[in-house]
Amino acid sequence: PVKDWNTWQRDVAWRLDPAAPSRFGPAFSARVGQAVAAAQTGKVIVQQVIGGYMYLRSLFGPLDLLYLFYDNPELVQTCMQAWFDLADAVIARHQQHVTLDELFLAEDICYNHGPLIAPDMMRRFLFPYYQQLIENIRRRQLDRSRTLHIQIDTDGNSVPVIDVYREIGMDYMSPFEVASGCDVIRIGREYPWLLMRGGIDKRVLAEGPEAIDRMLDRILPVMHQRGGYIPVCDHGVPEEVSFANYLHYRQRI
């Protein structure tokens, strides 16, 4: 929807107003109530946010965004400031009622060979807003003794950005897409500090019980011994995976 300053102001910016009264209506209160009830039973409370890159890509399109980083960086920064203002305001309201255990950033910044933008671009256009948001969240925690985990979720080959995102405090990553070369055993050994989720090849789930068993027999013993790993599919489960195959996989898990 965004082509320039005019379309940003006319079609998008006003929709992201943190103070819009309709943003904090009955549905918001009900969601907060569910989170409070879940926290009282010991469940992990996750604050989900659309990450900066996915947000910008949705505004400009995946190709035009790459040019705008160079041609109109001021517009990109303005859009990121709006992202921050909205995320910070909504999360602040959540934190009046509940302590967060995790900040989940849905980033999708990688493709099959690595990141779609360079680390220097990530540090310039994304990280200042992430760092401020994380700092604010930590300061507002009702229970400051609780650990706040930072999860980055990106499809594709995420290995080249693990150390980059660690600069903002990331300690948790998903989903380690196998088709892009991600191997949770190898990554788990190279990054022993990293919490991991994913790495179960969606293509193998379509092949049948024997193929599923071979995959799980390779992954599960090693990762169980390592710890810090949740074995789930490396993306949404595709339609070619039969329900019987999926149940077999889940029962094995």
Give the strand order, joined by hyphens, for the main sheet.
Answer: 1-2-5-6-7-8
| Coarse shape | globular
Please write the string of helix (H) and strand (E) elements.
Answer: HHEHHHEEEHHEHEHEHHEH
Could you say which structural class the secondary elements and strand pairing correspond to? Answer: alpha/beta
Tally of separate helices: 12
Strand percentage lies at 5-15%
Number of strands: 8
Overall mean pLDDT stands at 97
Provide structural commentary.
Strands 1-2-5-6-7-8 form a six-stranded parallel beta sheet. It has helices spanning 5-12, 26-40, 52-60, 62-71, 73-95, 119-125, 127-140, 162-166, 184-190, 202-205, 209-226, 243-252; strands at residues 46-50, 102-106, 110-111, 114-115, 149-153, 172-174, 195-197, 229-230. It has twelve helices and eight strands. It is globular. 51% of the residues lie in helices and 11% in strands. It is an alpha/beta fold.
Structure summarized in a few sentences:
With 253 residues, the chain is of the alpha/beta class. It has helices at 5-12, 26-40, 52-60, 62-71, 73-95, 119-125, 127-140, 162-166, 184-190, 202-205, 209-226, 243-252; strands spanning 46-50, 102-106, 110-111, 114-115, 149-153, 172-174, 195-197, 229-230. The chain contains twelve helices and eight strands.
